[in-house]
Give the backbone structure.
Amino acid sequence: MARPVKEKFDVTRLRFVLLGLLVGLMSGTVVSAFRYCIEVGLRYSRLVYGHLRIAPFVWWQWALLIGVNLGLAFIVAWLLKKEPYISGSGIPQVEGQLAGELEMHWWSILWRKFVGGVLALGPGLFLGREGPSIQLGASVGQGLAAGFKLSGTDRRLLIASGSAAGLAAAFNAPIAGTLFVLEEVYHNFSPLVWLTALAGAIGSDFVSLNVFGLVPVLHLSYSRSLPVSSYWHLILLGILLGLFGYLYQRILLVMPRWYRNLTHLPRPLQGIVPFLLVILVGYFAPNLLGGG
């Protein structure tokens, strides 16, 4: 009788799980620091606008506020001029890099995206931190791959793991970070990609939980469950939100062309307008500041 064949232990998967975990711990540290700086910036911004609302009008305080925002806009413009790939959310750049269409220097992206993101989100611009966090995590993964002299598929796996870790740290959501890589970046299911991304997301979430606590970022409390008889409302809500999401996306994609034609500003300097307009929003509705 033939002896049963013993399955060999897959060292490759264990290796990438450990590498993904290392990427996650490093990405979680970077993104947690990013989140903390943004929260501190928003807190001080709201305090400044709260003071201006209750205090008598003093022209030099307003001049100082406008000057600070203009200074921040010029610093962000300089960062954009030096590294154009830090513009926007950063997710398309990561997707292009994983598809082999773009090549970026990880350290240049990492520190400029960090500084530029804090300077833009801290004063209250209507930007989300999820995109920058994903690009920061991907840069950490790329840097670690460069340190271990990995290339090809191995390098892409660490970049993808960093992307999952970045999203996990941004929202304390490791499963969402892993699914983001599978659905948005790779568009297919691969056990090796899944394991590496999940390890990165768990490592990153471990760091962010120890920094910000166990309360979810999108924490919703409710007194009772929705009755089953009212579930049809959810279908209507989904259709309505889908239509609004499609309309928002179409407008968002065409806005850069409209904005460029109206302002005639060079691409790096286009941030001057929102940096000035956010002062009015901060004064009249400070709770609207930030990503929402």
